TrEMBL record:
Keyword NAD in annotation: yes
Organism lineage string: Bacteria, Pseudomonadati, Pseudomonadota, Alphaproteobacteria, Caulobacterales
UniProt entry tagged with the keyword NAD: yes
Metabolic or biological pathway, per its Swiss-Prot or TrEMBL entry: Amino-acid degradation; L-valine degradation
UniProt gene name: mmsB
Record-annotated 3-hydroxyisobutyrate dehydrogenase-like NAD-binding domain positions: 163-290
GO BP annotations listed: branched-chain amino acid catabolic process
Catalytic activity, as annotated: 3-hydroxy-2-methylpropanoate + NAD(+) = 2-methyl-3-oxopropanoate + NADH + H(+)
Superkingdom as given in the UniProt entry: Bacteria
Active-site residues, record numbering mapped to chain: K169
Originating species: Phenylobacterium montanum
NCBIfam families xrefs: HIBADH
Full protein name: 3-hydroxyisobutyrate dehydrogenase
Example GO molecular function: NAD binding
Length: 296
């Protein structure tokens, strides 16, 4: 049994903390939202009144926060001054590479082991304990990080040193955003050319156009029953979240001097879709805009 401090019990963190408690670990849970803490308590966690209280005797600290600014503040102001130096620190939020590296450096200077470990898989995977983790940390620390993440994971992959987990996450999601737009354009054109969607699905899924956006997350209803397209694009991976990740990718590309013209175009299209009022819909709903079904 491990003493875990879990900070950030939102859509993702709530299910993740519950899975740590289910694995018989002692979880001290904190969130700015009292309702989120109350839900964690219902799932076997102990309520902590502050970050400092949650981490004071922790062996592992896990954070699942919205963005880089939150992560910098929570570690800089609360975790590093109050956690025991022996605690293993793991941030699972999706944040900018620069913030991840800055927090890792600050943690190392204070004598802590720190890993960035963003996840792939949405709230369903968080609840089921089947997330994919991509980890940036010292090679020597990976085995303990992997063991700590195991109750929440389907797979844990070492991406490289500090910040490599965040780099992998934003590159993967940039590719996903681009491939979904390509898939939507292809289905929208197929419709205009009089091709039935399920015929095109069968052909593309067995041809060189095959990709995850077609075979696992088809943006038209029917061929992939579990895809959000079958339930009015509710749930799934929100357009606003995809846009956040595409912005992180563009920001990182600008700083690194990398050419990402398709990533930039994907960001612009998702930003337009959000401005039209669809930030809450699953990102595959962008097919509606490409078909011209929405008011421009
Ligand atoms: P969320 O907004 O539901 O949860 C974030 C939680 O952090 C909130 O409950 C908020 O109250 C809490 N919080 C903010 N500042 C805090 C502080 N100073 N101290 C304590 N708690 C604080 O967001 P989410 O959907 O759970 O996403 C969390 C992270 O996971 C994000 O970085 C997101 O990009 C990433 N992510 C989300 C998904 C998804 O499908 N939702 C998938 C993969 C990755």
């Amino acid at each position: 049994m491990t003493r875990i401090a879990f900070i950030g019990l939102g859509n993702m963190g709530g299910g993740m903390a519950a899975n740590q408690a289910k694995a018989q670990h002692q979880v001290a849970a904190f969130d700015l939202s009292e309702a989120a803490v109350a839900r964690a308590v219902e799932h076997g966690c102990r309520a902590a009144g502050s970050v400092a209280e949650a981490v004071k005797d922790a062996e592992v600290v896990i954070t699942m926060l919205p963005a880089g600014a939150h992560v910098r503040a929570v570690y800089g102001d609360h975790v590093l001054p109050h956690a025991p130096k022996s605690a293993l620190l793991i941030d699972c939020s999706t944040i900018d590479v620069e913030s991840a590296r800055a927090v890792a450096k600050q943690a190392a200077e204070a004598g802590f082991r720190f890993a960035d470990a963003p996840v792939s898989g949405g709230t369903a995977a968080a609840d089921a304990g089947t997330l994919a983790f991509m980890v940036g940390c010292e090679a020597a620390d990976f085995a303990v990080v992997e063991a700590a993440l195991q109750p929440m994971a389907r797979v844990v992959i070492h991406a490289g040193s500090s910040g490599a987990g965040q780099a992998a996450k934003i590159c993967n999601n940039m590719l996903l955003g681009i491939s979904m737009l390509g898939t939507c354009e292809a289905f929208a054109l197929a419709e205009k050319l009089g091709l039935e969607a399920d015929r095109f699905f069968e052909i593309a899924s067995k041809s060189s156009g095959q990709c995850w956006s077609i075979t696992s997350y088809c943006p038209v209803p029917g061929p992939v029953p579990a895809a959000p397209s079958n339930r009015g694009y509710a749930g799934g991976f929100a357009t606003a979240m995809m846009l956040k990740d595409l912005k992180l990718a563009q920001d990182a590309a600008a700083k690194a001097g990398a050419a990402t013209p398709l990533g930039a175009q994907a960001e612009a299209l998702y930003a337009l879709f959000e401005r039209l009022g669809h930030g809450g819909k699953d990102f595959s709903a962008v097919i509606q805009m490409l078909r011209g079904q929405l008011d421009a």
